[in-house]
User: Fold this.
Amino acid sequence: MDSPRYDARKTALLFVDPYNDFLSEGGKLWPAIQAIAEEVHLLDNLRAIQSATRQAGIQKVIVPHRRWQPGDYECWCHPSPTQRLLMTRKTFAKDSWGGEWHPEFGPQAGDIVVHEHWASSGFANTDLDFQLKQHGISHVILVGLLANTCVETTARYAQELGYHVTLVKDATAAFQREMMHAAHALNGPTYAHSIVDTRALLQALPHA
Assistant:
């Protein structure tokens, strides 16, 4: 693992799935992640990272999951187990409160919102790679949900495409501690260039 210094012109913060259903009281998935989110101080860390990256001039990119709509996945040949759950839970439903951005983490002027991903990778069947390349990005910092699904899959894909990848282990959460452990202690070291906590990331950012 390296200890990178980030050039603001070449770095992007990838904020994965900042929906009410994940991050707000009353969200459909908040009860499933609440214990871990509170244990790692997820919301405070996301606030701190968002603020520091904005001050540093680092590009924020929102990487959103598909907002569920009636008919989604029903006629697919091979929906995943998670997609089957989405059909019953109606998670991140379009035009619902749960499918809206958490009020503190939605897009602001200058932010990029890429096309919604259907499964776990923020790159597959979206414009994420295109947008990053058009903005001259070489380094990506990943935060958001979930540690062992969309964050991990997006990060793996980023590494495959040649990006320098940073995981922030207390700026994410999962349904179980074992999933967090797998994401950061077992799987992360096989592809990520840097795995840090929020404090270490803030110290490494420009003008931190």
The two ends are 21 Å apart (CA to CA). The chain has eight helices and six strands. The beta strands are 11-16, 59-63, 112-113, 139-144, 164-172, 194-196.
